[in-house]
């Protein structure tokens, strides 16, 4: 093996947490939708000799994802920050005058096996649109899981 090769270990997630407005609110068992996507504009134009050509270029916006968070369901949903947030929006709606109170900024933070932060995904102006509970069965001893869908307006990986 040549000495000039640079080797780096891949990102390995050992544990990850949800932060809202700087506070850890939940341990997560799964996350999906951490997608960074740019808008693409496609146009067809005719060249100087009459040939058609398709041009793809950067559009005007960066698309924000819907983030899906999976966690173990809390025993008491009335004391859970995510359920409180969801219920407040469900019961009161989202008003233009109180938009900042209903939408939150947050992060999905990934730690390695030595509990060192190795990655951070920030989202902005988010709100929970859905909380789904796994199917329940008396046949087993499985943990009950919830999947929370967060809608956000901006998303970035910062670490």
Q: What is the CA–CA distance across the termini? A: 30 Å
Spans of 5+ residues with little confidence (pLDDT < 50)?
none
Overall form: extended
- What is the count of β-strands? 10
Give the topology:
Blueprint: E1 15-20, E2 23-28, E3 30-32, E4 37-46, E5 52-63, E6 66-72, H1 81-92, H2 99-102, E7 104-111, E8 117-133, E9 145-151, E10 154-157
Antiparallel strand pairs: 1-2, 1-7, 3-6, 4-5, 6-9, 7-8, 8-9, 8-10
Provide an overview of this structure.
The chain is built from two helices and ten strands. The protein has 159 residues and is mainly β. The strands form two sheets. Strands 1, 2, 3, 6, 7, 8, 9 and 10 form an eight-stranded antiparallel β-sheet that branches. Strands 4-5 form a two-stranded antiparallel sheet. Strand 7 and strand 8 form a beta hairpin. The protein is extended. The mean pLDDT is 87.
